[in-house]
């Protein structure tokens, strides 16, 4: 008994201090847990939405890819080469929404590289995110920008409207390159380009003489090719974005899960410590009587 | 000496192997029909399929395309694209516009905005829409509206005549 007392007295003072701190941190941990749990719920549902959207976007993208590549096959078959001294129009395809990994910086980086190579090129940006990134460095090159991109699966009408606006703005160019995210697989994408050539550049192409063409058709063809390629870029970019969003959200959910586990462990440990110290209090109290 | 025999043997080997390679290219050449890709933004109708003949309505006139047609770029006008897959299978599509590109390698790429099988159209709906479009074309409020309606009339009239001739 005598031997225990000093120890008990010590333990009580320490446990009081501990108890006080534990109660505060327990409350904090509890709050933290709650917020992390709700974040995990949000990211999880965002992932679900992104994966359903991705399946749809992927279907659209595959068809759009066939459509677009059939279009650009002409330039390959005709052996069209970009002119060295001609002006270039860079169309950066991105979207308005964030939370989807490095989608926007990937296309921005690629566009910036093209501008560095040809400083006099003009830039048209589709989507607010890429616009914000590009206007930091190449603000003077940006001629036009569009927003409200990528809310839903892109439609051909959208692409036509964009192409129409570009043509109506009288932006002169000898070749356009559409910078978009090529959908490699559900977990990877890569910035790539689709070329579109103006009628003058196209009529200079190596194999052009092989084709029988009526003159007035070429201009229409150029406009059509621009719209088609924009559509391809949009569809492909949208699919990549959704895939990337899906994996970003999956990672976020996983991280939140790990955090929840860790916090629950700390919380339980803290609670156990509080219980233990309370028990010690009671027992020592009882034994003191 | 052995060097020469080796060279001779290699030469012979190449010669012996050559027919196999020649056969492979010959095989693809012998089926050199018209390779058709007929694509829409929202649907792929044909993708590199061998067909016998394709009849299109181009701005320069109606034309039938067989294998090894002279390479050309044709703008399509609203009309029927008739795909003759083989002697007893023919499909007719109505396209609103687009481009047909005949490449030197005997492949035909048709990019159209809209295309539907001819039998999917209802004559009543066409008649109703045509009347509506004709009204807008003459008494539309703005120039733009009237022009759009004129295009509509053109498409619908050719659609009607395509259905009539079926």
Strand order of the largest sheet of chain B: 2-1-9-8-5
Largest beta sheet: strand ordering of chain A: 3-2-1-4-5
How far the N terminus sits from the C terminus of chain A, by CA atoms, comes to: 11 Å
Radius of gyration of chain B: 24 Å
Beta-sheet strand percentage of chain A?
Answer: 5-15%
**Which structural category fits the helices and strands of chain B?**
alpha+beta
- What fraction strand of chain B? 35-45%
The percent range for helix content of chain A is 55-70%
Contiguous runs where pLDDT drops below 50 for at least 5 residues of chain A: 1-20
How would you spell out the order of helices and strands of chain A? Answer: HEHEHEHEEHEH
Largest sheet of chain B: 5 strands, mixed
- The mean pLDDT of chain B is 81
Tell me the greatest interface.
A-B, 26 and 25 residues
Tally of alpha and pi helices of chain A: 6
Structural class of chain A: alpha/beta
Q: What is the number of helical segments of chain B per DSSP (H or I, 4+ residues)?
A: 3
Q: Report the biggest beta sheet of chain A as strand number plus sense, adding barrel if it closes.
A: 5 strands, mixed
Order of helices and strands of chain B: HEEEEEEEEEEHH
Gyration radius of chain A, to the nearest Å? 31 Å
Please give a structural write-up:
The complex is a heterodimer of chains A (289) and B (166). Chain A is an alpha/beta fold and 289 residues long. Helices cover 66% and strands 13% of the residues of chain A. Chain A contains six helices and six strands. Chain A has a five-stranded mixed beta sheet with strand order 3-2-1-4-5, sandwiched between helices. In chain A, helix 3 (128-137) links the parallel strand 2 and strand 3 (142-146). In chain A, helix 1 (4-77) packs antiparallel against helix 6 and helix 2 runs parallel beside helix 3. The longest helix of chain A is centred in the first third of the chain and has 74 residues, at 4-77. Chain B is 41% helix and 37% strand. Chain B starts with a helix and ends with a helix. Mean pLDDT of chain B is 81; it is low at 10-30. At the A-B interface, helix 1, strand 6 and helix 6 of A face strand 1, strand 2, strand 5 and strand 8 of B. Strand 6 of chain A pairs parallel with strand 5 of chain B. Chain B: Keywords: ATP synthesis, CF(1), Hydrogen ion transport, Ion transport, Membrane, Mitochondrion, Mitochondrion inner membrane, Transit peptide, Transport. Chain B: Its main location: mitochondrion. Chain B: GO terms for molecular function: proton-transporting ATP synthase activity, rotational mechanism.
């Amino acid at each position: 008994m005598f031997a225990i007392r000093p120890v008990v007295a010590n333990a009580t003072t320490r446990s009081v201090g501990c108890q006080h701190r534990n109660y505060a941190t327990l409350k904090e941990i509890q709050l933290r847990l709650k917020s992390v749990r709700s974040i995990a719920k949000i990211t999880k549902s965002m992932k679900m939405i992104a994966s359903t959207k991705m399946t749809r976007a992927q279907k659209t993208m595959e068809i759009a890819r066939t459509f677009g590549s059939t279009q650009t096959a002409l330039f390959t078959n005709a052996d069209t080469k970009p002119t060295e001294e001609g002006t270039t129009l860079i169309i950066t395809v991105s979207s308005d929404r964030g939370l989807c990994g490095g989608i926007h910086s990937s296309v921005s980086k690629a566009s910036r590289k093209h501008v560095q190579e040809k400083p006099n090129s003009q830039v048209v940006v589709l989507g607010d995110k890429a616009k914000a990134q590009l206007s930091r460095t190449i603000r003077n090159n940006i001629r036009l920008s569009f927003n409200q991109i990528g809310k839903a699966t892109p439609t051909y009408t959208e692409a036509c409207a964009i192409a129409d606006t570009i043509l109506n703005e009288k932006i002169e160019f000898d070749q356009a390159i559409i910078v978009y995210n090529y959908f490699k697989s559900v977990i990877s994408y890569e910035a790539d380009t689709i070329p579109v050539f103006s009628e003058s550049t196209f009529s200079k192409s190596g194999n052009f003489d092989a084709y029988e063409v009526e003159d007035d058709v070429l201009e229409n063809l150029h406009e059509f090719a621009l719209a088609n390629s924009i559509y391809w870029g949009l569809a492909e970019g949208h699919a990549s974005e959704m895939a990337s969003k899906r994996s970003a959200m999956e990672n976020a959910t996983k991280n939140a899960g790990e955090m929840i586990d860790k916090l629950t462990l700390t919380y339980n440990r803290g609670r156990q410590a509080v219980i233990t110290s309370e028990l010690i209090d009671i027992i020592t109290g009882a034994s003191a009587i | 000496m052995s060097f020469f025999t080796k060279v001779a043997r290699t030469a012979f080997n190449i010669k012996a192997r050559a027919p196999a390679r020649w056969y492979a290219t010959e095989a693809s050449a012998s089926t050199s029909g018209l390779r058709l890709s007929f694509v829409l933004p929202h649907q792929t109708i044909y993708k590199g399929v061998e067909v016998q003949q394709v009849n299109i309505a181009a701005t320069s006139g109606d034309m039938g395309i067989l294998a090894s047609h002279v390479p050309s770029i044709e703008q399509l006008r609203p009309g029927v694209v008739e795909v003759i897959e083989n002697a007893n299978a023919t499909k007719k599509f109505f396209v609103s516009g687009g481009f047909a590109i005949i490449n030197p390698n005997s492949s035909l790429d048709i990019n159209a905005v809209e295309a539907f099988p001819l039998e999917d159209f209802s004559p009543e709906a066409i008649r109703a829409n045509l009347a509506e479009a004709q009204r807008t074309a003459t008494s539309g409020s703005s120039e733009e509206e009237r022009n759009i309606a004129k295009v509509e009339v053109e498409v619908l009239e050719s659609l009607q005549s395509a259905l009539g001739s079926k």
